[in-house]
Design brief:
Elements lengths: L1 E5 L3 H11 L4 E6 L2 H4 L9 E4 L5 H6 L7 E4 L4 H14 L3 E5 L10 H8 L3 E3 L1 H14 L5 E5 L4 E7 L11 H4 L6 E8 L2 E3 L12 E6 L4 H7 L10 E5 L3 H8 L6 E6 L2 H10 L5 E5 L5 H6 L7 E4 L4 H13 L4 E5 L6 H6 L4 E3 L1 H10 L7 E7 L4 E7 L20 E8 L2 E4 L11 E6 L4 H8 L1
Parallel strand pairs: 1-2, 1-4, 2-3, 4-5, 5-6, 12-13, 12-15, 13-14, 15-16, 16-17
Antiparallel strand pairs: 7-8, 8-11, 9-10, 9-11, 18-19, 19-22, 20-21, 20-22
Helix pairs in contact: 1-14, 6-9, 6-14
Length: 447
């Protein structure tokens, strides 16, 4: 597949490296030599130092022959314009990173699609959704709803009190049980488990279940005593914070601590009075945190542009008694460290944006892709096509690649957990988890 990426900023660099490791034909365009120089020397791709706004540049990059043209420069207007040009030149699909969430509203997005922009992504909005999902369930590291909650994936840190430790999964996750364990992060190791695997203390386990059994999962992992979040402190009043606060559940009260006085004034204008109290100060200041009632706060969310600051602030909040912490960790090198420090929920905008873009390059009908950053695993929602391989045999007979498991499916809006004897039908939306497997290979089972 030929992919052209315009913009060697953080998301562009991350995507180019990720896709090059999948052996795609990648061309990365940027006019800044220093940014292009940040590319991993091991990445197998072409770089073009030139302005992506130039039609001559786009032609030189063979954008017209691209299966996917991705515009992720810092300028949303440039991204929209060059996507339109690339589409006019012949690119099959285009995706533009934007900042203005209003452009994604019904009717507006369709207009841009007619103009040649196949998809719009707003990383801050995607991040805000992950933040809110993390706050809604204080005992969960990560939550992902499929088909409006017909299936739910929960990433949970297992601690003392968990009832299902040290038992073979084949005794816990049978065909009639209300959950499946689909991935395990243990230290630096990722496990796509089989029936003989066991859950261990301090594992980060990913459960697939249905919404009605969430209380049951909470009980067996020993998290019933976790207090639900009603008060939350945000540190860093950037766009991700604003979008999270605007969509925060009505039963939660929020405070925003922001160092920049001018930004505090902007936040007061951007947010309604009943949405959040804006405080000028440093979220790492213990005296300030105590003055603002950190002892009675159930969640602390660090969203500054500095990864180290966010990690340090979350550690401080935990030391002061806050159970639920969320950190924006944009430097991928710090993800494992944040996990080892027990930070809690980790949000990475590059990862989230890349997930949404990645699904566009898959040949199969894929409606959702997520990279499980903490577990170094991927999960995708494939639609089984009539006559496809997955519809001809039961799951245990399919010969799925090593490191792949099917967690569940949605059939006629009803979530169903999958076992070895399950027969997948055409039209089913199937949740596939994989580790060290090319997702395009999996698409062949569903086409």
């Amino acid at each position: 597949m030929k992919i052209v990426i315009a913009g060697a900023c953080d998301i562009g660099i991350y995507l180019a490296t990720l896709l090059s490791h999948s052996h795609e034909n990648i061309t990365l365009i940027d006019e800044d030599e220093e940014r292009l120089g940040r590319m991993d020397a091991e990445a197998d791709l072409m770089t073009l130092q030139a302005s992506p706004s130039s039609i001559k540049t786009l032609k030189e990059a063979n954008a017209g022959d691209a299966d996917l043209f991705i515009a992720v420069t810092a300028d949303q207007h440039l991204n929209l314009n060059i996507c339109m040009i690339a589409k006019a030149l012949g690119a099959k699909k285009t995706v533009a990173k934007i900042d203005d969430v209003e452009l994604t509203e019904p009717g507006v997005a369709e207009l841009f699609e007619r103009l040649g922009v196949s998809s719009l992504i707003v990383p801050e909005t995607l991040a805000a959704t992950d933040i809110i999902n993390g706050l809604k369930m204080s005992w969960v590291r990560q939550r992902w709803d499929v088909h409006n909650g017909a299936l739910v994936m929960l990433g949970i840190k297992l601690r003392e009190g968990c009832e299902i430790l040290n038992q073979p999964l084949k005794q816990l996750c049978g065909p009639d049980d209300p959950y499946h364990v689909v991935a395990i992060k243990r230290g630096y190791e990722t496990i796509i488990p089989g029936g003989n695997d066991e859950l261990k203390l301090y594992d980060l386990a990913y459960f697939m279940t249905t919404r009605q059994y969430i209380p049951y999962i909470r009980k067996i992992v020993g998290k019933e005593h976790y207090v639900d979040v009603k008060n939350v402190v945000f540190m860093g009043g950037g766009n991700s914070c604003v979008r999270a606060v605007k969509n925060i559940p009505s039963y939660m009260e929020a405070k925003i601590i922001e160092k920049d006085e001018e930004r505090c004034e902007e936040l007061n204008d951007l947010l309604e009075e009943d949405k959040a109290l804006v405080i000028h100060g440093d979220g790492r200041d213990i005296q300030l945190l105590n003055e603002e009632g950190i002892m009675n706060t159930q969640a602390f969310v660090a969203l500054t542009s500095n990864t180290e600051t966010n990690i340090l602030a979350c550690l401080t909040a935990k030391r002061l008694g806050v159970r639920k912490t969320v950190a924006m960790v944009e430097n991928m090198d710090y993800v494992s460290m944040a996990d080892s420090l027990d930070i809690g929920t980790i949000v990475n905008k590059k990862d989230i944006a890349a997930s949404h873009i990645y699904q566009m390059m898959l040949d199969a009908d894929v409606s959702n892709v997520r990279f499980l950053t903490m577990a170094n695993a991927d999960v995708a929602e494939f639609t089984a096509q009539p006559g496809s391989k997955v519809t001809k045999k039961r799951v245990f007979e399919l010969g799925l690649p090593r490191g792949v498991t099917i967690g569940g499916l949605v059939r006629k809006d009803v979530g169903i957990l999958v076992s070895g004897g399950t027969q997948i039908e055409a039209g089913d939306s199937v949740m596939v988890f994989c580790h060290n497997t090319n997702m395009q290979q999996l698409g062949k089972f569903f086409n």
